[in-house]
Design goal:
Radius of gyration: 27 Å
Number of strands: 11
Keywords: ATP-binding, Magnesium, Metal-binding, Nucleotide-binding, Nucleotidyltransferase, RNA repair, RNA-binding, Transferase, tRNA processing
Shape: elongated
Strand content: 5-15%
Subunit structure: Homodimer.
Oligomer: single chain
Largest sheet: 7 strands, mixed
Protein name: CCA-adding enzyme
Bound molecules: adenosine-5'-triphosphate, magnesium ion
Catalytic activity: a tRNA precursor + 2 CTP + ATP = a tRNA with a 3' CCA end + 3 diphosphate; a tRNA with a 3' CCA end + 2 CTP + ATP = a tRNA with a 3' CCACCA end + 3 diphosphate
Distance between the termini: 73 Å
CATH class of the largest domain: Alpha Beta
Organism: Lentilactobacillus sunkii DSM 19904
CATH superfamily of the largest domain: Beta Polymerase, domain 2
Length: about 400
């Protein structure tokens, strides 16, 4: 039993000693059985939220309308959720109504996949009502109950299935896969932010090529932003081998294979509601990927990309002969940012080279560019002389 469960045991025990049931549920149980690292420990209980709150000193109402209370314990937060059933789902996403119940079985029934519908009790007993353990052995993702109904209730589950297939290197069981194919267009009802999260997790999984291929085969790719227009390029990505480690790499790989310019990348990623900082890095990484592919990487492009995006481009470029020595070249750049330039605007003014003016910025940019290119050494006297030369040339 992992230490995360050990540390949370007193919480289970406290709820139980008050006469309620409490179990570990969800991803942490699945990942423990699969011997994968676990992140957050989720607890399900027959106690109602008000009852949970009355048992613990420090709680936060993180999602009390859905039955979730966070218990703070020695710096760790545990989400404790009351057993519940869901109903409504009129708009193919999230239930209109949740009903708290006292039965573990009802709670496990509403969960998405058999491997996610296991409960682990304080004494180490596993409740497995839908054959989740068997499916883990067979390495398959199977919907709890009728896949068609389950995807109709909440279309995000289709993306979750693909994400788990990629992360766990599992197959999606046939009826579940058929359900996805049949309901793929319902994905358009889901908030882009939610598909985004699952899509990125999928692309970072150990079997992302397979995950992406399932998106193509089930037509899911046609119901997320932009991807629908790029089938041949997506097929090429599926056929290639890649193992990505962050979100910037995910979007950069796609943007590179789609042949996107900076403004196309911006449009693409705004449709996916991607954070601006990520969009910026994707533009820099993709630009670097194009120059690697052309076999002409300038110091300037390495400099503007920055250390992290150089790493990103190296991870994405399958042919490592094309990127050998690239990071060393970056590390050997005379400067890594403008602050390292051995001259400032203030110094140029003090020395009477020029007065405060818009020209000052241009001169500094030119100096920066030349230092990066290696045509002027990063030494103050040399930089002052060069600045005077530029001004005379103008
Ligand atoms: P991760 O390791 O990525 O956190 P997880 O399985 O824990 O994976 P969560 O989103 O944290 O995923 O959800 C916790 C549990 O809640 C799931 O294991 C599943 O039982 C249930 N669940 C989550 N989302 C859904 C959904 N859309 N439909 C049905 N059950 C869900
Ligand atoms: Mg989780």
């Amino acid at each position: 039993i992992p230490k995360e469960f050990h540390e949370a045991l007193p919480i289970l025990q406290k709820i139980e000693s008050a006469g309620y049931e409490a179990y570990f549920v969800g991803g942490s149980v699945r990942d423990t059985i699969l011997q994968r690292p676990i992140h957050d420990v989720d607890i399900a209980t027959s106690a109602y939220p008000s009852e949970v709150k009355s048992l613990f000193k420090r709680t936060v109402d993180t999602g009390i309308e859905h039955g979730t209370v966070m218990i703070l314990d020695h710096g760790t937060g545990y989400e404790v959720t009351t057993f519940r059933t869901e109903s409504g789902y009129q708009d193919y996403r999230r239930p209109d109504k949740v009903t708290f119940v006292r039965s573990l079985k009802e709670d496990l029934k509403r969960r998405d996949f058999t491997i996610n519908a296991l409960a682990l009790s304080e004494n180490g007993q596993i409740t497995d009502l839908f054959g989740g353990l068997d499916d883990m052995k067979k390495r398959i993702i199977r919907a709890v109950g009728d896949p068609n109904e389950r995807f109709n209730e909440d279309a995000l589950r289709m993306m979750r299935a693909v994400r788990f297939a990629s992360q766990l290197d599992f197959r999606i069981e046939n009826a579940t896969l058929a359900g996805i194919r049949r309901h793929s267009e319902l994905l358009e009802k889901i908030a882009v932010e939610r598909s985004h999260t699952e899509f990125v997790k999928m692309m970072l999984g150990v079997d992302a090529e397979n995950g992406l291929n399932i998106m193509l085969e089930t037509n899911l790719y046609q119901h997320v932003p932009v991807l629908g227009n790029y089938l041949p390029q997506l097929k090429a990505i599926v056929a290639s081998k890649f193992q990505l480690t962050n979100e910037v790499q995910v979007w950069s790989l796609l943007s590179f294979k789609f042949g996107f310019s900076a403004s196309q990348i911006s449009t693409f990623l705004k449709k996916w509601k991607t954070a601006n900082k990520i969009i910026n890095d994707v533009i820099l990484t993709t630009e670097l990927l194009f120059s690697i592919a052309r076999g002409e990487v300038s110091n300037s492009i390495l400099y503007h990309a920055g250390a992290e995006n150089v790493d990103n481009a190296v991870v994405i470029t399958a042919d490592s002969t094309k990127t050998s020595g690239l990071k060393e070249r970056y590390n050997n750049l005379p400067i890594k940012n403008k602050k390292q330039l051995q001259i400032t605007g203030g110094e140029l003014i003090k020395r009477g080279v020029l007065k405060p003016s818009p020209q000052l910025g241009k001169v500094l940019d030119t100096l920066e560019h030349n230092v990066v290119a290696g045509t002027i050494p990063n030494q103050q006297e040399k930089l002052v002389k060069a600045a005077i030369n530029f001004l005379n040339e103008d």
